[in-house]
Amino acid sequence: MPSVSIILLSILVAVVVYRWVTNQRSRRSLPPGPRPWPMIGNLPHLGSVPHHAIAGLARKYGPLMHLRLGQVDVAVAASASVAAQFLKVHDANFASRPPNSGAKHIAYNYQDLVFAPYGPRWRMLRKIVSVHLFSGKALEDFRHVRQEEVAVLIRALANAGSAVVDLGQLLNVCTVNALGRVMLGYRVFGDGSGKSDPRADEFKSMVVEVMVLAGVFNIGDFVPALEWLDLQGVAARMKKLHKRFDAFLTAILDEHKANVGKGQHNDLLSTLISLKENADGEGGKLTDTEIKALLLNMFTAGTDTSSSTVEWAIAELIRHPKILAQVQEELDRVVGRERLVSEPDLTQLSYLQAVVKETFRLHPSTPLSLPRIAAESCEVNGYHIPKGTTLLVNVWAIARDPAEWADPLEFRPERFLAGGEKAQVDIRGNDFEVIPFGAGRRICAGMSLGLRMVTLLTASLVHAFDLGLPNGLLPEKLNMDEAYGLTLQRAARLMVHPRPRLAQHLYQA
C-alpha cells in the first residue's frame, strides 16, 4: 500500500495542477491584452496620455481588451458595439464606481453624485439635481441667466479693443457665473463686466488641478499595499486641494444659511438647505457634507467641461475658415446682425448644431469615461468579465474609429447633416458611435445644460466676432495638442483678437 506521505503528495500535486489548469482556462477566457508586468501589471503601458496609449493597444488586441493594473482587472471598450454591450446590455451590472483616491480625498469620501455608490443615496442626489437644476422647466426658468452672462462675455470681448485675450479663461468665468447664479443666486466672480478676476483665475487653476489629479492612474489605487507610500505624491496633493475647495464651499454654505429667512431665494443651494430636514427621495436627509459635495460636482464637472469644449470648437473653426464662414452665414440669415443669438434660435441653426456635434466627437470633454465596476461576473462577446472588474470606455477612440467614421481625424460637420454618413446619430447616449456624456444609468446628469451652454456660447462668439490669431499666426499652425486629465484640456491656451461684426449697440451695457 502506498505510504501516507505519497498519498498526501499526490493530493497536493493534483490540487496544484487543478488550480493551474483552472487558472489557465480563466485567463484564456478573458479578453485579449498585453502581457502584464510583475506587481504593477500594465500600468507602464498607459504612458503620459492614457487615452492615446489605450487606443493604440486596442488597435493591436481588439476593441474589447483586458488590462491588469496592479491587482485590478480592467476591461476596456474601444468600439461602439462593445461600449453598447457594457453600457446598455450590462448597464445595471456596471452602475457603481470602483474605489479611487480622487473620490476618497477630494469628493468627500464618495458622498458626491459623481462617485457615490449606486443605490438609494445616489438616486436621491440624482433626483434632486435632475428636478431642481437640469429638468426642462428648470432650464427654461433660468434661460435668461445664461443669455445675460453670455451678453456680459460679448461686451467684455468687445471692450478688449486691440488687446489679445485668453478666450478659455473668459469662457470659464462666464460658465461659472451662469451656473453660480442658478445655484447660489449670485455671480461667483467679477463685477458683471466679464473681465478676468484674480479669484476666478485661482478657481480655474483649482478646477484644472482637480481634473489632472483625477485623471492620474494612481499606483495606490491598483496596488493597495503601496497606497500608504503615496509614491506619486497624488494623495497628498489631493488632500491639499480638497482643503482649498472645502474652505471655498464652506464659506458659501455658511453665508447662505445665515441669509435663510431674510428673503425669497430661488436658487439650488436654498433648495438643498431646505431639503436637509426633508429630502425628497428614498435616501433620507441631506447632510452639509453632501451639499458641499454636490456643489463641488457642479462647479467642477459643470463649468470647465463646457468652457473647454467651446474653446476646442472655436479653435477648430479658426483652423477651418470655410466652415466658419458657413456658420456665420447661417447665423446672419437666421438671427441677423441687429441682435444677439438667443436659445430659441439654436434649433434653427442646423449647421451650427453639426459643428457642435463634430466638436464633441473629436474633442470629448471626458476622453476616458469615469470608471465603473462589475457588481457580478458576466460575459461580453464570449469573454469572461470577472466580478470586481473596472470598466473603462475609451470615448475618444470610439469617436475616431475608422470602422465607424470616414476620415475620422478630419473636422467635418457635414457628416451630421441630412445626407451625411451619420445624419441620424445623436450625442445624448443612445448612439454609441459618439458618447461624450457617457450612456446608461451613470450618464452625465448635466448633459442638457452642457449642450445648451456649449451651443449658445459657440454661436454667440462666432456671430458677434471675427476671431483672429495673434502675431500673424496662421490658422493651420494653431497648436491643437491635448493636455491629458480627467477632462480634455488644450495644451496651449487659445489667445484671440476679437473684432466685432454686429451692430455697435449690441456691445454696450
TrEMBL record:
<protein>
    <recommendedName>
        <fullName>Flavonoid 3'-monooxygenase</fullName>
        <ecNumber>1.14.14.82</ecNumber>
    </recommendedName>
</protein>
<keyword id="KW-0812">Transmembrane</keyword>
<feature type="binding site" description="axial binding residue">
    <location>
        <position position="444"/>
    </location>
    <ligand>
        <name>heme</name>
    </ligand>
</feature>
<dbReference type="GO" id="GO:0005506">
    <property type="term" value="F:iron ion binding"/>
</dbReference>
<dbReference type="GO" id="GO:0009813">
    <property type="term" value="P:flavonoid biosynthetic process"/>
</dbReference>
<dbReference type="InterPro" id="IPR002401">
    <property type="entry name" value="Cyt_P450_E_grp-I"/>
</dbReference>
<dbReference type="GO" id="GO:0016711">
    <property type="term" value="F:flavonoid 3'-monooxygenase activity"/>
</dbReference>
<keyword id="KW-0349">Heme</keyword>
<dbReference type="InterPro" id="IPR036396">
    <property type="entry name" value="Cyt_P450_sf"/>
</dbReference>
<dbReference type="InterPro" id="IPR017972">
    <property type="entry name" value="Cyt_P450_CS"/>
</dbReference>
<keyword id="KW-0408">Iron</keyword>
<dbReference type="GO" id="GO:0005789">
    <property type="term" value="C:endoplasmic reticulum membrane"/>
</dbReference>
<comment type="similarity">
    <text>Belongs to the cytochrome P450 family.</text>
</comment>
<dbReference type="Pfam" id="PF00067">
    <property type="entry name" value="p450"/>
</dbReference>
<keyword id="KW-0479">Metal-binding</keyword>
<dbReference type="GO" id="GO:0020037">
    <property type="term" value="F:heme binding"/>
</dbReference>
<keyword id="KW-0521">NADP</keyword>
<keyword id="KW-1133">Transmembrane helix</keyword>
<keyword id="KW-0503">Monooxygenase</keyword>
<comment type="pathway">
    <text>Secondary metabolite biosynthesis; flavonoid biosynthesis.</text>
</comment>
<comment type="function">
    <text>Catalyzes the 3'-hydroxylation of the flavonoid B-ring to the 3',4'-hydroxylated state. Convert naringenin to eriodictyol and dihydrokaempferol to dihydroquercetin.</text>
</comment>
<keyword id="KW-0472">Membrane</keyword>
<keyword id="KW-0560">Oxidoreductase</keyword>
<keyword id="KW-0284">Flavonoid biosynthesis</keyword>
<dbReference type="InterPro" id="IPR001128">
    <property type="entry name" value="Cyt_P450"/>
</dbReference>
